[in-house]
Amino acid sequence: MKNLSDIKYRIKSIDETRKITKAMETISIAKMRKALSIFESNRVFFNKIRAVMSDIILHSKEVNNIYMRPKKGNNTIFIVIASDKGLAGGYNNNVLAEAWKKLDKIKNKHIFTVGQVAREFFQKRNIMVDIEFTHLTQDPTFDDAVNIVESIVSLYKKNLADRVFVVYTEMVSSISMRPAILKLLPLSEETIIKDIKHEEDKDEYYFKELLYDPSPDEVLEELVPQYLSGVVYGTLVQSVASEHSSRMLAMSNATRNATKILDNLNLAYNRARQESITNELNEIVSASGQKA
């Protein structure tokens, strides 16, 4: 016969765990929605900056900006965005595996990490992390993105970096996310003007040449860091939203599994209790028969 007190203890323990996972699921839903709302708000600013840059490129005969000139060197910066904590399903494993697949083939690399899990991932592999941006994964701000961009732009202008990539988790939908690698520098004309889909549209833009004061390159010199800040901020916010979405799904599965375990434990408890009552009745009947 199973021990009733042991089963009751397990029921209580699993029930408390289920309450925690359910609460974490609810919190993750709220945080994910907040992050997605911020991302949509940032998209307006980002699209405006990119529209102005598209106008400059398409309306100017020659653009020779430092951010758009390809470099021959091999120094590559990787900004890897993960989280500060676990319990988020495969979120961290997926994005870090994608980062490792890309940078493992590159010799001259510099790694910037966002999130403690990303830092620990590279430290365990004896790979030096050049710059660590901490405490950004819970509530990133645009200023955080600006600080990251200032760091990479400074290195890029000093020819200490030839290419810059950001590895993050793209939010496809509220329940779908995927690791992605985005090239930040050097910028390509195709990336900036990609919304102008038809050649006739481009031709129309080229005929409308505009004059920029002091010059298109100098205007771009001011706009590109703002553009990059918008891109990096978008990757930060999407990563945060993906983390909360992944944690929401993980906690939902945990809650569902806890419920199944509780159902089985309650069934086992009722059976054990019924068995205990039956045994007690048999003992009473046996005792009465012996007296008679």
Supply the key terms:
single chain; 292 residues; alpha/beta; Helix Hairpins; Pyruvate Kinase, Chain: A, domain 1; 2 domains; 5-stranded mixed β-sheet; 7 helices; 5 strands; 63% helix
Summarize the structure.
The protein has 292 residues and is of the alpha/beta class. 63% of the residues lie in helices and 12% in strands. A 5-stranded mixed beta sheet has the order 3-2-1-4-5, sandwiched between helices.
Explain this structure.
There is one protein chain. This protein is of the alpha/beta class and 292 residues long. The chain has two domains: 4-23 and 252-282, Helix Hairpins (Orthogonal Bundle), CATH 1.10.287; 26-247, ATP synthase, F1 complex, gamma subunit (Pyruvate Kinase, Chain: A, domain 1, 3-Layer(aba) Sandwich), CATH 3.40.1380.10. The protein contains seven helices and five strands. It has helices spanning 4-59, 91-103, 116-124, 142-157, 189-192, 199-207, 216-291; strands at 76-81, 109-114, 131-133, 163-173, 176-185. It has a five-stranded mixed sheet with strand order 3-2-1-4-5, with helices on both faces. Mean pLDDT is 81; it is low at 197-203.
